[in-house]
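[Discussion] Sanity-checking designs against the backbone

I'm trying to build intuition for which residues belong where. Below is a structure token string of 92 positions. I'd appreciate it if someone posts a full sequence so I can compare it with mine line by line.
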């Protein structure tokens, strides 16, 4: 799965890592629902850090279509709230 972190680039994520990313996504959603800015910031950074850690960075000149688009690390709680779908940022 190809994932784009806005403002950073793309990474390729293994299907084996989706369950862990979904757990982090659920925690992020909970922080947003609670309107807990501090917890939101921690959860957003945890999700993005894990994507960076488990993902294999694609070169800047790669033109792969992104299956998922994640917000940048400095996104506001409102910006991320608007990006959430029925299944969060990471479906599954």
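Best answer:
Here's mine. Compare freely.
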């Amino acid at each position: 799965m190809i994932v784009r972190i806005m403002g950073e680039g793309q990474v390729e994520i293994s299907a084996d890592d989706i369950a862990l990313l979904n757990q982090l996504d659920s925690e992020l959603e909970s922080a947003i629902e609670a309107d807990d800015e501090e917890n939101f910031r921690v959860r957003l950074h945890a999700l993005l850090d894990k994507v960076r850690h488990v993902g294999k960075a694609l070169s800047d000149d790669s033109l792969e279509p992104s299956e998922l688009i994640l917000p940048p690390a400095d996104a506001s709680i409102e910006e991320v709230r608007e990006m959430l779908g029925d299944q969060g940022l990471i479906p599954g």
